[in-house]
Amino acid sequence: MSERQGSGAAAGSNKTTEGQDDSKMNVPEDFDIDMENPETEKAAVAIQSQFRKYQKKKRVEKS
């Protein structure tokens, strides 16, 4: 399993550095994700659900 360095909001920094630009160049072009797999669909639904909850909470806190 490969390790990824956090970037953007996950790392708490939105500043780009030269090191981050280099890491973007190493991203494989082809991702082998089976979009027909039921587990993939379940994962996508779970991610979307959590994101919607986050967005709703964010809107409530601004008010």
Automatic annotation (TrEMBL):
Origin species: Solea senegalensis (Senegalese sole)
Lineage: Eukaryota, Metazoa, Chordata, Craniata, Vertebrata
Domain of life of the source: Eukaryota
Molecular functions per Gene Ontology: calcium ion binding; calmodulin binding
Family listed: Belongs to the PCP4 family.
Entry-linked InterPro entries: Calmodulin_Regulator_PCP4-like
Official protein name in the record: Calmodulin regulator PCP4
Region (Disordered) location: 1-32
Any one cellular-component term (Gene Ontology): cytoplasm
